[in-house]
Specification:
The N and C termini lie far apart (about 45 Å). The chain is of the alpha+beta class. Helix content is about 45%, strand content about 15%.
């Protein structure tokens, strides 16, 4: 059975994401065929705006909406402590704990 081009293209796009194999890509694609158009439009807009509305902080290399990021701009942070992390997801994990009040440097 020949798969419609739009479906095949989306499956291929999903497979390029880390941790998404062929079956998961197919499930995601066929799921999206059944969501209301407004939800699909919102999803599409969110993906489209991802790079447009985020920036890399020139101070710590974290991802944020401004440069410097909100963490580097926060005057209540402990500037005497800098935690070196591998990626922005690590910053998110530490921030979720609410325990660390210093600054970061993302490699």
């Amino acid at each position: 059975m020949k798969i419609p081009r739009a479906i095949s293209a989306l499956i291929d796009s999903f497979q390029k994401l880390p941790g998404i194999g062929p079956k998961t890509a197919q499930r995601l694609t066929y799921y999206l065929l059944h969501v209301p158009q407004i939800e699909l439009d919102n999803f599409s807009d969110a993906v489209s705006n991802l790079k447009k509305e985020t920036t890399l902080c020139s101070t710590c290399r974290n991802i944020g909406e401004s440069d410097p990021c909100l963490i580097c701009s926060d005057l209540s942070r402990d500037i005497s402590t800098i935690l070196v992390v591998e990626q922005p997801l690590d910053v998110l994990a530490f921030e979720k704990t609410g325990k660390y009040k210093g600054l970061y440097h993302v490699l």
